[in-house]
UniProtKB/TrEMBL annotation:
Coiled-coil portions: none
The keyword Oxidoreductase belongs to this UniProt entry's keyword annotation: yes
Keyword field: Metal-binding, Oxidoreductase, Zinc
Cofactor: Zn(2+)
Every Enoyl reductase (ER) domain range: 8-343
Organism whose genome encodes this protein: Streptomyces goshikiensis
Entry protein name: Zinc-dependent alcohol dehydrogenase family protein
Highest taxon listed in the record's lineage: Bacteria
InterPro entries: ADH-like_C, ADH-like_N, ADH_Zn_CS, ER, GroES-like_sf, NAD(P)-bd_dom_sf
SUPFAM superfamilies in the record: GroES-like (SSF50129), NAD(P)-binding Rossmann-fold domains (SSF51735)
Family: Belongs to the zinc-containing alcohol dehydrogenase family.
Length: 358
C-alpha cells in the first residue's frame, strides 16, 4: 500500500509501506476512505513530539471500511463504514473504566500515528476495535464524520468542558484553526454571553465569525485590551488555548478574570512561563488535557441531526495519493485559506434518508 511516512523532523513522503495485518485478536484492518491532517501532525513534523520515530506512518483521524477483524472483535464486521477515533481504548484499565480513554494504560490512548502506524495510508490496523471505532449512520457523510475523529471531541472536551463554559460567560478562544473553530461552535451550545476569537490570520478570523464568534481580533493588536474593554476590566470567564506556542498560552493567562478558567488544548513543544507572581492571587484554574473521545457518540448524534457545522470547516478536498500536496496546502494556511483538508474518494457521501410521513 501507499502511506505518508515520517522520516525525522522536516521530512515526510508518500511512499510504499507494508500492508497492515491483524496482530491481536482485538484488531481490525480498515480501508481508509476519508482522512485528514491535524495541527498535531505539523507539530510532529516540526519535531515537537519526539516519541514519534522515523518510519512511522502519520495520521490519527479517518473514516473507513472494515476489511478484516480479529477473532475477538464483536461490534463491527467487514463491510461496515466506521469512524476511527484518534484515541484507542483497551476498555480494561483504570482510566478506560473511568471514561478517560486518552490516558489508557492498556496499550491504547493516542497511539495511531504516534506510537503505532496511523491513518494517512490506504489501510490501517486499529487496535481494540470494539471500543476504538464507531459504526456510522448513513445520515452522516464520511467528510463530516472525519471531523469527529479528533477536532470536535477535542475542542469540546479539552476546551469547552474543561473550561466549564456556562450561560452568559465571556469566552475567548486563542487560535482559530480547526480546533479553535470547533471550540467556538461547541462553546455556542452553552449560550455564552459572547465569544471572542484571537488569531494572526484574517481568513481564520473571518471563519471564526461565520462559526459564531461575536468579536475577533488579531493576536498582534493587543487582544488583552479588547477583552478588558468588553468585560469592564475584569477579564474573560473562560480562555481556551488552541495554538500550542508559549506566547499564546501566556496571553491566555493574562486575559482570564479572577476566578476564571484557562483551558489549554494546544500541543506544546517548548516550555511556557507560568507567571505565578501575577496569578497566585487570582484564583484561576488552568487545565490541560489530551482528548478522551468519551463525547464522540453524543457528537455523532448531533452531527446526524445537523446540529454541528461540518462542511464549513472543510476547505479543500484531495484524492488520497495527493497527500503531499494536501500537507503543503494545510501547512501554508495563511496563503491557501485552508481549514480542514480531507483526502479520499467520494464513494461514501451521505445517503439522504427521506422523512416518512406519519
Ligand atoms: N490536546 C489535545 O488532545 C489535542 C488534540 C488535537 C489537536 N491539539 C492541538 O490543538 C492546537 C490547534 O490545532 P489546529 O489543528 O487548529 O492547529 P492549526 O495549526 O491549524 O491552528 C492554530 C492557529 O493558531 C494561530 N496562531 C498561531 N500563533 C498564534 C498566536 N500567537 N496567537 C493567536 N493565534 C495564533 C494560527 O494562525 C492558526 O490559525 C494544536 O497545537 C494541536 O496540536 C490538541
Ligand atoms: Zn489531532
Ligand atoms: Zn485502557
Amino acid at each position: 500500500m501507499k502511506a505518508l511516512v515520517f522520516q525525522g523532523p522536516g521530512k515526510t513522503s508518500w511512499q510504499d509501506a507494508p500492508d497492515p495485518a491483524i496482530k491481536d485478536a482485538a484488531d481490525a484492518i480498515i480501508r481508509v476512505d476519508a482522512v485528514t491532517i491535524c495541527g498535531t501532525d505539523l507539530h510532529i513534523i516540526k519535531g515537537d513530539v519526539p516519541e514519534v520515530a522515523p518510519g512511522r506512518i502519520l495520521g490519527h483521524e479517518a473514516v473507513g471500511t472494515v476489511v478484516e477483524t480479529g477473532g475477538d472483535v464483536r461490534s463491527v464486521r467487514p463491510g461496515d463504514r466506521v469512524l476511527i477515533s484518534c484515541i484507542s481504548s483497551c476498555g480494561r484499565c483504570r482510566f478506560c473504566r473511568e471514561g478517560h480513554y486518552g490516558q489508557c494504560r492498556g496499550g491504547g490512548g493516542w497511539v495511531l500515528g504516534h506510537t503505532i502506524d496511523g491513518t494517512q495510508a490506504e489501510y490501517v490496523r486499529v487496535p481494540f476495535a470494539d471500543l476504538s471505532v464507531h459504526p456510522l449512520p448513513s445520515a452522516v457523510s464520511s467528510h463530516d464524520a472525519v471531523l469527529l475523529a479528533d477536532i470536535f471531541p477535542t475542542s469540546y472536551e479539552v476546551g469547552v468542558l474543561n473550561g466549564n463554559v456556562g450561560p452568559g460567560d465571556t469566552v475567548v478562544v486563542v487560535g482559530a484553526g480547526p480546533i479553535g473553530l470547533a471550540a467556538i461552535a461547541t462553546a455556542g451550545l452553552y449560550s455564552p454571553g459572547r465569544i471572542i476569537a484571537v488569531d494572526l490570520d484574517a481568513s481564520r478570523l473571518a471563519a471564526a465569525r461565520d462559526l459564531g464568534a461575536d468579536a475577533t481580533t488579531n493576536a498582534e493588536e493587543q487582544p488583552e485590551r479588547l477583552v478588558e474593554d468588553l468585560t469592564d476590566g475584569l477579564g474573560a470567564d473562560v480562555v481556551i488555548e488552541a495554538v500550542g506556542v508559549p506566547e499564546a498560552f501566556e496571553m491566555c493567562t493574562r486575559m482570564v478574570r479572577p476566578g476564571g478558567r484557562v483551558a489549554n488544548i494546544g500541543v506544546h513543544g517548548k516550555p511556557a512561563t507560568l507567571h505565578l507572581e501575577d496569578l497566585w492571587i487570582k484564583d484561576v484554574t488552568i487545565t490541560t488535557g489530551l482528548v478522551d473521545t468519551s463525547s464522540t457518540p453524543m457528537l455523532l448524534r448531533m452531527m446526524a441531526a445537523g446540529r454541528l457545522p461540518g462542511a464549513a470547516l472543510v476547505t479543500h478536498r484531495f484524492e488520497l495519493d495527493q497527500m503531499e500536496e494536501a500537507y503543503e496546502v494545510f501547512s501554508h494556511a495563511g496563503e491557501t485559506g485552508a481549514l480542514k483538508v480531507v483526502l479520499g474518494g467520494p464513494q461514501h457521501d451521505a445517503i439522504a434518508v427521506p422523512l416518512q410521513e406519519q
